[in-house]
Amino acid sequence: MTVTIIGIGLIGGSMALALKEKGFSDRVLGVDANTMHREKALALGLVDEIMEMPEAVLQSDLVILATPINVSEVLLPQILNIAGKQVIMDVGSTKKIICESVAIHPRRGRFVATHPMWGTEYSGPEAAVRGAFEEKAAVICGKEESDRDAVEMVEQVYRLLGMHLVYMDARAHDVHVAYVSHISHITSFALANTVLEKEREEDAIFELASGGFESTVRLAKSNPAMWVPIFMQNRENVLDVLNEHITQLRKFKACLEKENYTYLEELIENANGISRILK
Amino acid sequence: MTVTIIGIGLIGGSMALALKEKGFSDRVLGVDANTMHREKALALGLVDEIMEMPEAVLQSDLVILATPINVSEVLLPQILNIAGKQVIMDVGSTKKIICESVAIHPRRGRFVATHPMWGTEYSGPEAAVRGAFEEKAAVICGKEESDRDAVEMVEQVYRLLGMHLVYMDARAHDVHVAYVSHISHITSFALANTVLEKEREEDAIFELASGGFESTVRLAKSNPAMWVPIFMQNRENVLDVLNEHITQLRKFKACLEKENYTYLEELIENANGISRILK
Question: Of A4, A64, A137, A205, which residue is 20 to 30 A from B70 by alpha carbon distance?
Answer without folding.
Answer: A205
